[in-house]
Amino acid sequence: EQGITRPKGHKVSFHYNSRVEDMHFGKTHPMKPWRLTLTKHLVLGYGLQYAMDTYEAVAAGKDQVRAFHDPDYVDFLAEVSPETFPALCEVEKYKKHIANSPYQDLVDLGPFNLSTSPGADCPVFDGMSTYLFLYTGATLAATNQLVTGQSDIALNWSGGLHHAHKSEASGFCYINDIVLSILDMLRVYPRVLYIDIDVHHGDGVEEAFQRQPRVMTLSYHRYGQYDDTGHKFFPGSGDLNSTGLKGTIGEHFALNVPIPSGIDDRQYTHLFQSITGRALEAYKPSAIVLQCGADSLGGDRLGQFNLNIKAHGECVAFVKKARLPLLIVGGGGYTARNVARAWCHETALASDNKLPDRIPLDIVPRPEAFSRKSHGNGLLFPPFPRTHPNDCKDVDLELMIKKLDY
Ligand code: V1P
Ligand code: CA
Ligand code: ZN
Predict the structure, then answer these.
(1) Which ligand is nearest to the CA of 195?
(2) Are the C-beta atoms of 359 and 370 separated by less than 8 Å?
(3) Residue 92 contacts by C-beta under 8 Å, 6 or more apart in sequence?
């Protein structure tokens, strides 16, 4: 494509398998793999494939997933489907994994926090095994590119499922591809910095490495009351004082930036650059994993921040400036047309390309997704409508920056 060039001085690889697009979590479920289809359409429409090495992902093996997850959980995930779920629930070795959940009344839960009820966060759906092992395979292939020195930046927009626990699915996440990636990185790199700009707390990754000084986790997230229902914003963890497991050598190697709703571009960029800059300086990581959840954008169906795509992308540009091996993964993002815009823009940033703002509607297969009258057809179109009042006070943010600088 005209104007698209390969970056000088570094190599970028893009890892993906279109089969993840066929998945449906359920009619009312906010997680839509369709956002990955739209992202692919934009990336290809702009011609960014000419700037990177593109790899078709293959499924991760069960043995690879067992590096973090409970072997029973891995067996269950490999076999589960809406058809096999009832019988699997009766298998003795899985019965001990039926947890006491505060949401027990709301949905009929099976083992590992999985459920076939509509409305469950982690439903069992058709083809889910294929989907889980594919997004994980893509992240592991991307990681392999980095640790072998074949890529300097590796991208997997279908990964970044930061809530999954060792033997439990949580918040739309089943396999924690990030934890598996970092475990592979630790064979090669002395220290890994994990940065998470999804609007939700990266609790699964933090928990996995809470005793581990060789991994520093840094999550920026909405924290506090969800609305007037009395519920907390999911998952409810990640306050300023959670800094790693006390009494272990991992203490002080977790950082959390809890943020009230409605934060704007200026405030977020200042927070992000101050705290991330300081973490880089103090921790001196050998490699970085950046989770780019796009639910921190304004107008997201679940998120409560007011970021524009430009500010979201500036986080990627800032981290890239560290010139360290960098894995970039996706995560949340529930207003599909905006997720696709952000991740396409960030693919361009990773490969040193500046895209024309006019989306090539004549080339993308679904131009109607990007040509809404109300939103215009630009890539970084002007500010999202402010859907949440800004509850962030500059003085409080400044205090937070100070407190985190220990
Ligand atoms: O708030 C909850 C729990 C489940 N409820 C009973 C309380 N769950 C959230 C989960 C959000 C997960 C975010 C994942 C990620 O960080 C990474 C991929 O982005 C939730 C919400 C919400 N508004 O927070 N679940 C749902 N909405 C939901 C809605 C409809 C159907 C199924 C789930
Ligand atoms: Ca986060
Ligand atoms: Zn999220």
Answers:
(1) 2
(2) yes
(3) none
Closest ligand to Cα 197: 2
What tens digit of pLDDT does each residue of 162-210 get?
A: 999 999 999 999 999 999 999 999 999 999 999 999 999 999 999 999 9
CA dist 141 and 155 (Å) reads 10
Domain 12-55+150-404: CATH superfamily is: Histone deacetylase domain (3.40.800.20)
CA of 171 to the centre of ligand 1 (A): 6
Segment 141-159, tens digit of pLDDT: 999 999 999 999 999 999 9
- Give the containing element (helix H, strand E) for 136: helix 128-147
Q: Is the CB–ligand 1 distance for residue 334 below 6 Å?
A: no
For 221, phi and psi rounded to 5 degrees? Answer: -160, 155
Q: In angstroms, how far is CA 378 from the centroid of its own chain?
A: 24
Q: Nearest-CA neighbor of 186 among 159, 169, 203, 208?
A: 208
Provide the pairing of β-strand 215-222 with 192-196: parallel
Contact 313, 346 (CB under 8 A): yes
Domains of the chain by residue range? 12-55+150-404
What ipTM describes this predicted complex? 0.99
**Cβ-contact 10, 153 below 8 angstroms:** yes
Contact 253, 217 (CB under 8 A): yes
**Catalytic residue annotation:** 201
